[in-house]
Amino acid sequence: MTAQRETIEEKQKKSSKTKERQFKGLSLTERKQARREKLIEAGIEAYGTHGFFAVTVKDICNEAKLTERYFYESFKKSEDLFQTIFLKLIDQLQHNVMQAIMQASTDPKKMIEDGLTALLTTLKENPHMARIIYIDAMLVQELHNQATIHETMTRFDRMIQAFVMLMMPHLDRSEHEISLVATGLNGYVTQIAIRWVVNDFNQSMEDVLSSCSIVFLSLLNTFSEKEKKIKKEDSSL
């Protein structure tokens, strides 16, 4: 009887501990993830408003309404949080651009316009994102040390390469050549975007879109003319 009572008491204690681990219906792991998301959102707000170098861990925690011990529960240092935020925002930006391109008509000029419009619209509607990606990220040495910036630029190179091949599926150019062209296009648009963001979007989106489009349209015309010339020479043989 005594043993049975002890077994019941042990079960009650275990049940009590299980309930203690649940708080507002969330497990310990879920609460930790929720705190991490709060820190990320706070980081986007703080870094996007004041810049990485003007924000401390304490500032982030105040914004997130969490104590500093919870910051170090998820991140070792500010640079780790910033890197997480940077990659999250890059994913969002790339998704928006790719979605616009895939939903566009098969007309290459329309694809160029829709893809670049999605990029510029996303930046203008999300100034915190724009600042973090195109200003602060270029200055945070940790991102360069870990090759995060290089890897991100390479991702956009590949996206533009896929875009070029989608626009001109019958293009008679080597993959290596298209890859180099994509890198050039990426750098061109990146520098225009940086200038636009640094100047607080003071130029109209129409002007910036036109400037970004010029090189893509020139490429399209150049490759199209060469393609026509090759077809003409083949047909004359």
Can you characterise this structure?
α2 packs across α4 (68-74) and α5 (78-103) packs parallel to α9 (148-167). This protein has helices at residues 2-21, 28-50, 57-64, 68-74, 78-103, 108-125, 127-139, 141-145, 148-167, 175-198, 205-236. By secondary structure, it is an all-alpha fold. Mean pLDDT is 87; it is low at 16-20. It is elongated, with a radius of gyration of 26 Å. The protein contains eleven helices and no strands.
Anisotropy-based shape: elongated
Straight-line distance between termini: 103 Å
| Top-tier CATH class of the largest domain | Mainly Alpha
Helix content: over 70%
What's the CATH topology name of the largest domain?
A: Tetracycline Repressor, domain 2
Instruction: Estimate the strand proportion.
Output: under 5%
List the uncertain runs.
16-20
Largest sheet: none
Helix-strand makeup class = mainly alpha
What's the number of domains? 2
As a whole number of angstroms, the C-alpha radius of gyration is 26 Å
- Assembly state of the chains shown: single chain
Order of helices and strands: HHHHHHHHHHH
Query: Count of DSSP helices?
Result: 11
Mean pLDDT: 87
Instruction: Please give the number of β-strands.
Output: 0
CATH architecture annotation name of the largest domain: Orthogonal Bundle
GO molecular function, one term: DNA binding
Protein name: Transcriptional regulator BetI
Region (Disordered): 1-24
DNA-binding region: 56-75
